[in-house]
Structure formats: C-alpha cells, structure tokens
Design brief:
single chain, mainly alpha, 32 helices, 68% helix, elongated
Length: 710
Amino acid sequence: MLCACSGEQFKFEEAPQSPESLATRDFSASGLSSRTGDWESKFDETQVEDVESTLKETLSLNYEEARALLGRLEYQRGNFDAALKVFEGIDIRDLAPRMIRAIAERTKQRKPRSKGDNVLPNVMSMHSVSLLLEAILLKSKSLEELGGYTEAAKECRIIVDIVESALPKGMPEGIGEDCKLQEMFHKALGLLPNLWIKAGFLDEAVTAYRWALVKPWNLEPWRLACVQKDLATTLLYGGVEVNLPSQLQVNGLTTPMSGTEEAILLLLILSGKMALEEIDWDPEIMDHLTYSLSITGMFESLANNVEKVLPGVYDRAERWYFLALCYSAAGQNEVALNLLRKACASSEAKHRPYFPSFLFAAKLCSLYPNHAHEGIKFSQEAIDLAKHQNEHFLGQGQKFLGTCYGAAARISVLDSERIIFQRESLKFLNAAVALNGNNDPEVIFSLGLENAIQRNLNAAYDNLIMYSDMMAGSSIRGWQLLPLIVSAQQRFKDAETIVDFALDEAGSVDQLQLLRLKAILQITQKQPKQAIEIYRILLAVIESQKEHWLQAKAFWHEALTQQKLEMEVWQDLATIYADLSSFLDAKACVDKAQLIEFFSPRSWHLTGLLLESRTLHKEALVSFLVSLSIEPDYPPGIISAAKLLLKFGMQSLPIARSFLMNALRLDPTNHDAWFNLGRVSKMEGSLQQAADFFQAASELKLSAPVQKFE
C-alpha cells in the first residue's frame, strides 16, 4: 500500500492576497469583468493572444506574467487542456537563471531596510517569481489531471531545482511573510513524490521524499510529519530498495542499512513527536510502526513504544492486550500473562469484559502445564463471553479448554483426578472439532496430540492425516508429530519415510529438527553408524549458519533455538557412544554440550551415566542430584537416581520407590519408570504387584514413541 501525502490539498480557487502582487490586482476596474463570459469555453490560439494582449495593456504585465494569470484562470475553471496550452507558452528554461538570481539576491540579509535599498536593478521581484512558480505548479497539476504523470513530475521538479539552486542551505526564516514563494515550494515538495508514484517510478519518489527532508525548508510540523510518514510507507510497502546517496551516507550505528530500517527510524521519530504532542495522534503511524517492527522481530522495541503512548489513546484493557501480544511475540509469555491477568482482573469488572484478553490468556496458559488450572478458568470465561457476543470464537475457547484439561491431567497427583481431566480434555476438543473443525486445522492438531499423549494412536494417526490434508503438507508441526505417532505404532521404516518426505517440503531451519528426528529413528533401529553420519551433517550445517544467526540480533529467538539444537545433537551423540562403550568419545560430546549450556539437566544426567558405567556410584549419584537440582521435574534423572539407589541395598528401596512414583506422577506413560518400580516391588517380595508393573511397562513400551509427544 502506497500512501500519498495526507497533508493539505492544493487549493487554487483563490488568488494570492498580497496587495502588491501583480496576480491580485482588481480585474473589475480594468474593464475585464465584462469579458469573463468569453472564457467559459476553451480558447484557441487567437483568443489566447487577444486576452493576453488585454492583460498586458491593462495591468502592465510582461508576456510570461500575463500567461501565468490566464493559465491560472483556465485551471480554476477546470479547462486543463486550455490551461496547459497557455502555460506551454512560458519558456521557463530561459527564465530559470533570472528566477534563481532573484531568489538568491532578494533573500540575502533579510533585514529591515529603507524602500530605496530594496530596489535591485534588472532583478525580478519576488512576486513575479512566485507567480511564475505557481504557473509551473499549475502546469504540473494540469498534466496530472490529464494523465501525464511523468511529464507532470518533470515540471514539478523544475520548481524544486530552481529554489534549491538559489537556496542551497535551505529556506531562510521569514521568507513567506511577504510573498508566496515558500507556499508554492512546499506544495511542490509534497506533490513531486506523489507524481512519481503515480508514474510508477518509486525510486524517484523515494529520492524526492529524501530531498524534502535533508535540508531546512521551513516545513510546518504537520507537513514535515506527512513527508516522513509517506516516505516510511513507500519504503515499507513499495517493494523497492533505494540506496542512500553518497552525500547522505554517514558511518555510524544509527545509519540505516536498508529501506526497512530507514522506515523504522522515521516512524520512531514520528512516534516520539506524538508522545511529546508536537503533532496530532495518528493511528496509521502506530499501525505502520507495529508492522515494521513485527516483520523485523523487534517486539520488545514495539512494546516500549506502546508504553509511551499517552493515556486515553487506548482503553486500559486494550493497551494491556496490545502489550501482551508484543511481549508474547518477544518470547516473554510470563510477562504477557501478567498483563492479561490485569486486563481480566476483578478491578475491571465495572467495564465491559475485553474478550480477546480472556482468549489470549487461555491460549498462553495452554502452553504451560503449571498454568493449566488458571487456563481452565480463562477458557471457561471466554466460552461464556463467546456465547453472548462472539459465537464464532466458541470453538477456540473449547479448544483451549480441552488443551488446558489435558495439561492439568499431566501434572495431576491423583489418578482419579487425572482420569477425569483426560476425559474432559477429549470431550471439549471433540466438541471444538464438531463446531468448526472443517475450518480450523489447529483444532484437529490439538485433538491428535491429546490422543497421542493418551496413547489413542489410531485416532491420533487419523487426526494427523486429516490435519496434513487441510494444511496441504505445509505445517512443520504436523510433519514432526506424524512420524512420532507412527513410531509409537512400531512402524519405524514408515516413520523414516515420512521424515524423508518432510525434508523435501520443509524450510532450511525446520529441516534441522527433522534431520535430528531421522537420526533418532536410526538409533532406534540399531543403526548407530548411519545416525552418527546424520549428526555429522547436522553439526556442519549448524556451524555454517551460526555466524549468520549471531549477527541477526533481531532474530535472537531463532538463534537460541539453533543453539539448543546443537546442544541436543552433542547429547544424542554422547548417548550413542556410551551405548557403544566408547566412553572417552561420549565424555567429549558431553563436554561440548556443556560448553553451550553448562546447567543442562540432560548433560549432568549423561555425566552420571558415564560415571556409573565406571562403577563410580557415589559420584554418579551426585551428578544425578545436580541434574535434579537444575530441574526437579526431570523424569530421566529421577529414574536413573532410583536405579542407582537399588544398588545400595534394601535400605534404599523406600527412597527409590518414592523417586519412581514421582517420575510416574510427571510422566504416567514412562515404561522405564514402571519397569524399575516392578524391580522395587520384586525386591520387597510383592511379586504380584511386580508382575502388574512389569506388564504395564511392557504394554507402554510397545506404544512408546522415539521422542516424547509435545
């Protein structure tokens, strides 16, 4: 979208009002009023010469001034062809040097002087210059009306060139007090880029905007703001990249490196002016700033600018919601959730509930199990509001409610409560699918994920196939979850085939995650050499992209994701080498992972496993406990600590059982925890209970994916 200048429209209905101007002398006194009826139709060349002669004789005008006045009259009457014919009789190229000299001479040392001092022989008066500049401007407008945008822009450019040549350092103060020069020039500055845009030359338009800003042309604050805003929108939406001229380039941290950066700087300047009330509030500026900062990933900067907006522009709930969107996009979901709690708090009860805040709060809570119960409340409130005023969002509320119930089930301590929450989760997700599943593939995905977590693998598979069809294979989340479901059905070759197909469809960043998944499938199929080769390729790709992500500060979230993936690759390699009894290589891989993130629970867990393999049980237990001190709810660390405690004798069985029960509370489908709990029961002499635990472990292992469903 290209925005034309939103400032003052050109008005030529009234002649300049200076009492000394040749353009404003009384026509009725000259006897011309009786002839105005003859000007209702377009003039031919003979009529132009007749009227021109009358004007020259009556008003003592020269040839060019008479033509300028006559052209103005024709333009005011809407006779653009006739006006253009009149204006073409003025040879501006010959007059330009005289006009430049007149402007330069008459603007020098503009101090109060006697009338005699103002007489400059052989120099045009400023009123004559203004009249001729107006003629050029009206000629340009006439060409615009007739569709000749390129020629109109070239004519308008003549005004800019004349004034710029005469005043290379900008417009002096007070020049607009006794003539129309400044007014005509300002109108030309606003018109020129718009003409280039209409002509399709966006690079010329950008250049015209920039020249209007680089020198002090005495633009009014609102007109200057219009130019800055129009330049920013042209750079943002024009689809062209116009480099700064060499004379405008300044080396420094604030020098924009692209058109988007230049647009952001301009919009930030305008945002600051609005905050200081130097210009009126313009919601379009905030819209453009939101867009530009969003596409560059600068969400925290956007939040800072939203916080600077003066009270009263946004409602309180709307402001909190806007800020929550910014912080959530910046990866600060806890901050966003705190803001939404304010918007949904009882202190706002006297105001009309702001529905988007409840829905967004429910969505954020659905992402984190520890906020699941709070998310259930937000979701229920959103559903109640949707029933009365936003029925088309009812399915979204049910989706988040179902997701929150599923998350609540996974952190529930009581088995009876977990079963109820799981049933409610499927109930509301199925209701959401029935309501608008055909239009919302994300509802299908949420249902498929919940079915997979509850080990309803056939239903989950059907859901993911439907989701992939609706997304036309364009969702990386679908490609990651589908092979996990297939692997849980013990169809590892099919899962690998799906991953291979997904690699051809995914983008460069998503391919890295899929490559890791393929390597894990190779490990599951007892093919460690192939897995190691895939990891080698993966590390080489990550290393080649590392410098790019570190330099792209605006995309820090992607850089952190890449860094986390690199750490996980080293940890996976450590697991492979440990299984191959290559403990030195495994230790080297763990060290690499800890260089990336020292306080990683998995790295300390792997260190404990390596120590345990060397029968250093006490040291291994310390490593497992360090892992749990970093993340207390880390099931692999809890299970490994329990397994190690079993080696310390019967006196450690109660502690081991407590550890394993805690692991099952966190992950009820963990077959390794059930198996070791069976070992504990067997050592205690509870053989029937041990048999039940071993049976549960066996069944769960047959439906376990190669990676945890997330």
